[in-house]
Design brief:
Layout: H1 3-10, H2 14-27, E1 35-37, E2 41-44, H3 46-56, H4 62-78
Antiparallel strand pairs: 1-2
Helix pairs in contact: 1-2
Length: about 80
């Protein structure tokens, strides 16, 4: 999701979202810069790395991700962003 979409869904400012993400990346020891592989270019965004590291460390699990995805789909439908 974009910062703007997260802000709208969580009732935050975009700056608030960016600050929270920056704090999360610091706690997970993730560089803000994307990880670059010479063969593929930018392969991982900091958000992708955060999810991967959090799952590896047991901070979140697949069930939590599935529940949040369902909640997101419901929110998108209420916001008329997805067809019913």
């Amino acid at each position: 999701m974009t910062d703007k979409a997260i802000a709208r869904r969580r009732y935050l400012s975009e700056r608030g979202v960016q600050n929270r993400l920056r704090e999360l990346y610091a706690k997970l020891s993730i560089d803000i810069d994307q990880i670059v592989d010479e063969r593929w270019g930018s392969t991982y965004s900091p958000r992708s790395r955060a999810i991967s590291i959090a799952m590896q460390r047991g901070l979140i699990n697949a069930d939590e991700v599935a529940r949040e995805d369902e909640a997101l789909q419901q929110w998108l439908q209420r916001e008329n962003a997805l067809p019913s």
